[in-house]
Amino acid sequence: MDHRFVGIPELTDVPRVAVVVDVMRAFTVAAWAFSRGAEKIVLASSDGEALALKESRSGWLALKDGAPAAGFDTVNSPGLIRSLDLAGRTVVQKTTAGTVGALAVASAPMVLCASFVAAGATARFLRTDGSGPVTFVVTGDGGQASEDLACAEYLRQHLAGGDAEVAPCLHRARTSRAAADLADGVQRGYQGVHPDDVDLCRETDRFSFAMVAHQEDSLTVLRPVAVPGESVEAR
Questions:
Q1: In the sheet where 135-138 sits, what is the strand order?
Q2: Is the dihedral of CA 89, 212, 226, 34 positive or negative?
């Protein structure tokens, strides 16, 4: 099957099936938010929109990249998100790359958001659906982020059948520029970065749900969809 990998700037048409990949850290964070009980994640196009959505809906929370900022409840860090109680909450997420990529293909008939932590479930969802060739939207570094390319390749191997070799993909993620930047942020004491972020982003198949985006009342909304299969949490 003729899958393709594209960066956000290369999106010139609306794909039939889009898998938007952001390993470090948007869609690792989204998966952790769902694991902590979030009902849905609304993807925002700007910080201003994220805050406006939060303010217009009772009980909604907002998160963003970078350091904590006024009006935002948390930041785009799996190490920090994993300690929150998000049961029944709606989270508005705005990030530099991941949410941008998802919004760029929001009109596609099928949109999934992915990272290593839910890769197996994402592949199983796609195999079950049988919707045809996948466009992998590699969000980081203009489509060249090695951790996102590695995750997309892992997903492609899954879809091709047989055993997917995760170790080389995880090595590429560990030695990526994004991982180095996060480690540097920890060393410098930057807020918005947790020492466990890189390791959490490299955990594979921790969760047994895929993350599917739909249009709901003019918003792009991400929800978890349970996919049968083993996960770390189920062991």
A1: 4-7, 135-138, 17-21, 110-114, 209-216, 219-226, 40-43, 90-94, 61-64, 74-75
A2: negative
Q: What is the C-alpha separation between 147 and 134, in angstroms, rounded?
A: 18
The model's pTM is: 0.95
Number of residues that make up the chain: 235
Task: State how far Cα 35 lies from the chain centre.
Answer: 13
Q: What is the pLDDT along the chain (235 residues), one digit of tens a residue?
A: 589 999 999 999 999 999 999 999 999 999 999 999 999 999 999 999 999 999 999 999 999 999 999 999 999 999 999 999 999 999 999 999 999 999 999 999 999 999 999 999 999 999 887 677 999 999 999 999 999 999 999 999 989 876 789 999 999 999 999 999 999 999 999 999 999 999 999 999 999 999 999 999 999 999 999 998 755 443 2
